[in-house]
Automatic annotation (TrEMBL):
<comment type="similarity">
    <text>Belongs to the FdhD family.</text>
</comment>
<feature type="binding site">
    <location>
        <begin position="255"/>
        <end position="260"/>
    </location>
    <ligand>
        <name>Mo-bis(molybdopterin guanine dinucleotide)</name>
    </ligand>
</feature>
<keyword id="KW-0501">Molybdenum cofactor biosynthesis</keyword>
<dbReference type="InterPro" id="IPR016193">
    <property type="entry name" value="Cytidine_deaminase-like"/>
</dbReference>
<feature type="active site" description="Cysteine persulfide intermediate">
    <location>
        <position position="116"/>
    </location>
</feature>
<protein>
    <recommendedName>
        <fullName>Sulfur carrier protein FdhD</fullName>
    </recommendedName>
</protein>
<comment type="function">
    <text>Required for formate dehydrogenase (FDH) activity. Acts as a sulfur carrier protein that transfers sulfur from IscS to the molybdenum cofactor prior to its insertion into FDH.</text>
</comment>
<keyword id="KW-0963">Cytoplasm</keyword>
<dbReference type="Pfam" id="PF02634">
    <property type="entry name" value="FdhD-NarQ"/>
</dbReference>
<dbReference type="InterPro" id="IPR003786">
    <property type="entry name" value="FdhD"/>
</dbReference>
Amino acid sequence: MATQQDASSGLPAGTRGVAVQRGAGAPDADGVAEEVPVALEYNGISHAVMLATPLDLEDFALGFSLTEGIVDSRADVRDIALVEGCGGLTVQLQIASGCFARLKDKRRSLAGRTGCGLCGAESLPQAVQRPAPLQSEARFGAAAVSQAVQALQQRQPLRDASGATHAAGFADAQGRLLLVREDVGRHNALDKLVGALLVARQPAQDGFVVVTSRASYEMVGKTVRAGSALLAAVSGVTGLAIDLATDANLTLVGFARSERLSVYTHPERVVWAAAA
């Protein structure tokens, strides 16, 4: 399982070298992203199994726990251990008793949870959960958002090596990219980023999130629960994402490429440069 960089191949951690045929000649060397089963276990009870890149898994577990409403803060997670076996990795978390009781109640109401958004939900209200609206007066310059998006393109070693991963980044109000996480899954990358923010004790409300994927309602919900007031996606947004962002007081930006931004909700939070 490739979790450390292979110095002989020069590939970054989370990838491995393979042979690829691109014509009639000899095979070429190529890099591909690793994807392994990762189980999340809370107080000894298995909760979810997802496919993820085997990097920054403690960040992933912390971020997932917060954005899925399993815990309310970093302090609710008492311990984290990573165990390898059975063809994958298990992240074992010890969480506060109140959070664990809430999780058990939630498990009783769901047929099963796989992290795909709708799987396991028995009703539409369960499937489309609406977090409490953000209380934020933050403002961000359009130039700062564009700057962060451009910087994100330069900080994706897994993407550069494999072409098969997504990234999520956190930028400060000036557009300086402070944290980046990558994964084969766009939700996983965002969860890893949220976990990294918790570990770094970096207040999410002080900046904004940029992602290389489209923005679905799940991505909006995770950003809101993390506490950031703006989500900028390189690709498009969905209608349900717009509805949720509107209700949650989140500024949702799509097609954030170079100097172009499409602001779908709460445009008052984006400050545009004055026309010359």
